Here is the input.
Amino acid sequence: MPPAPPPPPRNFPFSLLPATPSPASIENLKSNIENSPAAVLTLADLAAWSRPGTSLAVLGHPIKHSISPPMHNAALAELARTDARFADWRYFRFEIHPDDLPRALDLLHEKKFRGVNLTVPHKIIAFDRVAEVDPAARPVGAVNTLRWSESGWQGFNTDGYGLASAVQETLGRDLAGAHVILLGAGGAARGAAVECLQRRCASLSIANRTRETLEALLATLTPVAHGVPFGGFAPSAPPAGLPSGALVINATSAGLRPTDEPPVDLTGLPNVAAVFDMIYNPPQTKLLRQAEFLGLPHANGLSMLVHQGAKSLEHWSGIPAARTAPTMAAAARAALGL
Ligand SMILES: NC(=O)c1ccc[n+]([C@@H]2O[C@H](COP(=O)([O-])OP(=O)(O)OC[C@H]3O[C@@H](n4cnc5c(N)ncnc54)[C@H](OP(=O)(O)O)[C@@H]3O)[C@@H](O)[C@H]2O)c1
Here is the structure.
């Protein structure tokens, strides 16, 4: 995969809203929005929003590579085939600069968007701006799903559910009772660590390149550990006492570029049982290639993306995630050309 493009400028050039909209261009805008939920929309589009149907959105910076819109719109179209309530549901993407997030969230609430997904870098910033945080999301300190309520946004985090479901689906393993070696100490790793501990994994060993970030993460985990042993180590020097037969989960961004070296050498870990990499594009990182070479069960993060998305839709629609996940998976694969 080529290196990630630089973030778009504040005045993103693909806004569907002309500077001074005429009545005709507003009609045109509405029709564009209705017919092109895949377009990259902006804060200006949001300010002019008057779509009457049920709207959902993902906000990010950058956002144009997100495959959440095709995933969700495929699931909504499938639901609408048998349930007329979903006929006017659409999911849109918005390029929102972090400085504009408070305004965007206010506008989305005012325009009565039913639900919002948040991706990089908004998950942590939004945490402090929701009226009510789901208790399971509190120790993560980040929300990726918002649901409209009269009194303000309700915040959830479906990434942990996505991870646990994906590990079960792709590797046939439960996080509960597993020895887990987690690579990374950023936002995704924090969510994964909390999920592993809340599900009572057997042990959790976290490796991160930067020691300070690792220590900061470890310091926050004690309240959710419930007696599960956890600790940290430097990926360049795995300690002798690591558990044998561990599930290795990569939550670093090392591997997003095909030239990236893997965050750890699997042969330096004792008797690894399986490897899960949260990265799904490219579909095979060097870490997964090494797992394949070593004959280890392994999977990329596509299934995690699908299951976190299906859980978000469950929060908005009440439709169980298990029902929409297969359609989302097919749409995600198609969007990635797989
Ligand atoms: N499949 C899914 O649904 C899903 C969901 C969430 C996230 N993800 C993926 O998870 C990854 C991490 O996301 P995030 O939000 O946690 O990012 P983040 O907060 O920026 O954290 C990045 C982490 O990667 C480490 N890292 C970066 N470059 C590295 C390198 N060259 N070698 C070793 N470690 C490196 C960082 O270590 P330092 O502390 O040393 O900088 C840090 O621990 C991304 O690839 C993202 O796409 C996937």
Notes: The domain at 23-157+304-335 is CATH 3.40.50.10860 (Rossmann fold). Residues 302-317 form the longest helix (16 residues). Confidence is low (pLDDT under 50) at residues 1-26. The pocket of NAP is lined by residues 120, 159, 162, 184-189, 208-210, 213, 251-254, 256, 260, 263, 278-280, 301, 304-305, 308 (CB under 6 Å).
